[in-house]
Amino acid sequence: MRKALQLAEEAFGENEVPVGAIVVRDGEVIGRGRNRTVAAGEPTQHAEIIAIRDACRHLARERLDGSTLYVTLEPCPMCAGAIVLARLAGLFFGAYDEKAGAAETLYAITTDRRLNHQVETHGGVLDHECAAVLSRFFAAKRGR
Predict the structure, then answer these.
(1) For residues 112 and 133, what is the distance between their CA atoms, to the nearest angstrom?
(2) Could you tell me the pTM of the whole model?
(3) Which of 9, 28, 42, 48 is catalytic?
(4) What's the rounded Cα separation, in Å, for the pair 5 and 25?
């Protein structure tokens, strides 16, 4: 999670909502991402999506079974769906998202038994540190 936090700090420095994500397989980081919605000018450039794409390129395949995603903020519905579609084995997230959290808070997409794949999901990992980066970012945006 600390590597994901470093990526979140990089996003902060680029005036992006500070979310970072990594994909790990057999102890090796195979995918990295940070929010890039402002730079890319489009809403799908979330840290999780970028990290999943990076990991798929690294493995030269579309499925990430046996891999785990670490992300500093609870995934939104779009990202939670991508996590399931990528067949990730595990998800660890930091701060809970009361407005868009789709892994535990508002929805439980990653563990929904109605879907054809479930992801072992754990929230609250380094949650205070992950939330602090977001709080600093939004306080700076509000001029505080």
Answers:
(1) 29
(2) 0.96
(3) 48
(4) 18
